[in-house]
Amino acid sequence: MSATPLQNKSNQLMTVKNLTDKSADLYIYGEIVDNTDFKWDEADVMPDDVLNALNQVDGLDELNIYINSPGGSVFAGQAIYNMLSRNKAKKAVYVDGVAASMASIIAMVGDTIHIPSNAFLMIHKPLTIAIGNASDFRKLADDLDSIESGLVNVYKDNLKDGVELGTIQQMMEDETWLNGEEAAKYFNVEVIESKNIAACASELLNKYEKTPQKLVAQVDAKKGGTEPPEEQTNEVDEFEKMKMQNELDLLAL
Predict the structure, then answer these.
(1) What is the 8-class DSSP label of residue 66?
(2) By the 8 A CB rule, do 199 and 97 touch?
(3) Residue 71: strand pairing partners
(4) CA angle 91, 71, 47 (to 5 degrees)
(5) Within the chain, where are the H helices?
(6) Whose CA is closest to 246, among 89, 75, 68?
(7) Known catalytic residue: 117?
(8) Model confidence, pTM
(9) Of 9, 94, 206, 233, which has the fewest Cβ atoms less than 10 A away?
(10) Among 69, 101, 104, 202, which one carries the catalytic annotation?
(11) Of these residues, 69, 73, 114, 124, which one is catalytic?
(12) Would you say 118 and 180 are in contact if contact means Cβ atoms under 8 Å apart?
């Protein structure tokens, strides 16, 4: 995590690989953030990044979408989900390590969803921070309920037969982390062989309440091995950045 914003949005890890006349691979490896003129981290994924990638693969028969993301902005994630959903290609989603929060919504865009037994899906209620009076907070709560309803509808479309929607809503309330085998009990996903999980070295994972310890350890190990001490003191709090981003979006409603 660099404390200096990247001014060139072309420096990104939202990439298109293995492009042929029939298929392509898209990689969403980073936090989901709103469109801005700069990036705090080159791995951040904006809706514009996805739009640019989809323009490169327009008209293809198949898209393979690889996800390793801690989530992020609700509104950016919804935009990305909707853009991918509108693409007419058959979409196969692969959760390479983590699809948490809004990344789990994006994962649901797949016609098929593949999760290794040792990868993770995380679902929870949308959240934000705010300043204001009682009326402001009442409106904010209503807005959050409306946003949650939209997220619930996405999960609903991907539920296994017999799973009650109320079960998923309670899991969102509780912030629930599911490995591949657990996710397959609730959602229409295919569990594939366990693999070496790609590290998702985002501080955002440290800020969720129930992040599995082995993921926290991965973040700490990656951070300790790559960041000099002087940069750590200037580090942006990723969780607060995400919440502030959602707050600004909610104020625009």
Answers:
(1) E
(2) yes
(3) none
(4) 60
(5) 47-56, 74-86, 102-107, 134-156, 165-174, 180-183, 204-207, 213-226, 229-232, 238-251
(6) 75
(7) no
(8) 0.79
(9) 233
(10) 101
(11) 124
(12) yes
